[in-house]
Amino acid sequence: MQPTLLQKPEILLVGLSFYGDPFDSSDAWTEENHIGRTWQRLTSYLGQHGGAIRHRTASDVFYEVHIYGEETSTRGLFEVFVGVEVERLEAVPVDLLVKVLPAADYAVFTLAGEAIFSDWVMHIDRWLAEAGFERSQPYSVQYYDPRFKGLDRIAESTLDIYMPVRKAAA
Amino acid sequence: MRDLLPIYRAIELIEARLRGEISVTEMAAAAGYSLFHFIRAFDQAVYHTPYDYLMRRRLSEAARDLLRSDQRVVDIALDYRFGSHETFSRAFKRFFGMQPVQWRDRGVIPRRALTPPLSLACLEHIHQPGFPRPEIIEMGPRHLVGLMSPVTDQPETAAQLWRSLGRALPPQAGGSYFGVTAYLDGQPGEAFYLAAVEMPAPDKYSLPLARQTLPEGKYIRMAHCGALETLPLTLDFLYHIWLPKARLRPALPMEIIAYGDAPPWGDRGASAAVLLPVELK
């Protein structure tokens, strides 16, 4: 698992979010969870009102951001934000939310096929520790572009993970 | 079958820390997973989130302590890390439907009210290939005739009743076979077992057979998968996982095992399905 290191300026995202334990479903008998439902809400919105999002950078790129807070460690609760990137914020529809990711150095890990379902967070944290890095921000980014073919075609799919990093203090 | 051992290691840590500090991150570490992967895997294995399972176990043990000790409620609350009397009481009321003081005054643990620690055997049972899903059905009245006895030792009592019923029934009686355990409300441990066969015309069969009618209403029906000895694991799954998730609760203090047209004695291996009368919470 060898990442690419790169710098990214501020990233402006417009989308929807969920806060809680995304797998805490009252209907645990389906594979559906709150992350899937948030995606469904977004794609449904884009299908009906996609034109309302102005200055979108790419029509076939999507972001899923996991943002960790105080309750993440104690209770397993965190925010899942799914959205699209825009060049600038202007007349954002009232039913969408804005997330601004700060300019940061990222280690970008590319996952292919079944590795997408693996415990890649653990693998990434292990790599960071061994390479003398640490996370610099309390979030991680999943970057979906046309290389990702869908959960039903995972063997053919590729997903990039952007992990904000900095050199670990000596 | 998925690897359930990592999740079970986390469950063991939860058990060891019911009265101590524990974070979901520590549970994940016990499983050897990252936190994100852990909460996903835990929910898939246990059908409760890690935090929800922890709370259910803490409340269950606290409820037991309320009855077996004379500790103050606030001390029990603090023992199980609820932070305050108020936080504990709110959580307790949500889980048990009454305040801790009312629970203590009542003095009896209702049957199946407490969430037991999830065993590795139960985890493996509910994740075996082809493990069936329960279904909610509307059932009309079912007329049964059979033999009933107070339960002292469930398997032995049941086996004896089935043997006697086999002798008492007329040849070619046919019909579907049911084992019904009826509990005396508020007196856990005391129950009656009825070994019975469904009869369209129960009047035809009189003494020594007893008659019982399963009331019409909403039931959950779930086929049991595996040896009959593992029926308690299927019941654990229904009471402690499926019913809370489906926001249902038992409507009557009885458990019914439907054996189809093969009675649970003799050479023919009986299949079994659990029937529980239920109502919305």
What does this structure look like?
The complex is a heterodimer of chains A (170) and B (281). Chain A starts with a strand and ends with a strand. Chain A is built from three helices and nine strands, in the order ββαβαβββαβββ. Chain A has 170 residues and is of the alpha+beta class. The model of chain A has no long low-confidence stretch (mean pLDDT 93). Chain A has one domain: Multidrug-efflux Transporter 1 Regulator Bmrr, Chain A (Alpha-Beta Barrel). Chain B is an alpha+beta fold. Chain B has two domains: 122 residues, Orthogonal Bundle (Arc Repressor Mutant, subunit A); 146 residues, Regulatory factor, effector binding domain (Multidrug-efflux Transporter 1 Regulator Bmrr, Chain A, Alpha-Beta Barrel), CATH 3.20.80. In chain B, 41% of the residues lie in helices and 21% in strands. Chain B has ten helices and nine strands. In chain B, strands 1, 2, 3, 4, 5, 6, 7, 8 and 9 form a nine-stranded antiparallel β-sheet that branches. The model of chain B has no long low-confidence stretch (mean pLDDT 89). Chains A and B meet through helix 2 and helix 3 of A and helix 3 and helix 4 of B.
Give the topology, please.
The complex is a heterodimer of chains A (170) and B (281).
Chain A: E1 4-8, E2 11-20, H1 34-49, E3 62-68, H2 70-75, E4 78-86, E5 97-101, E6 104-112, H3 120-131, E7 133-135, E8 139-144, E9 158-167
Antiparallel strand pairs in A: 1-6, 2-4, 2-5, 3-4, 3-8, 6-9, 7-9, 8-9
Chain B: H1 5-16, H2 24-31, H3 35-46, H4 50-68, H5 73-79, H6 85-96, H7 100-106, H8 120-126, E1 135-139, E2 142-150, H9 154-168, E3 177-183, E4 191-198, E5 210-214, E6 217-223, H10 231-246, E7 248-250, E8 254-260, E9 273-280
Antiparallel strand pairs in B: 1-6, 2-4, 2-5, 3-4, 3-8, 6-9, 7-9, 8-9
Helix pairs in contact in B: 1-2, 2-3, 5-6, 8-10
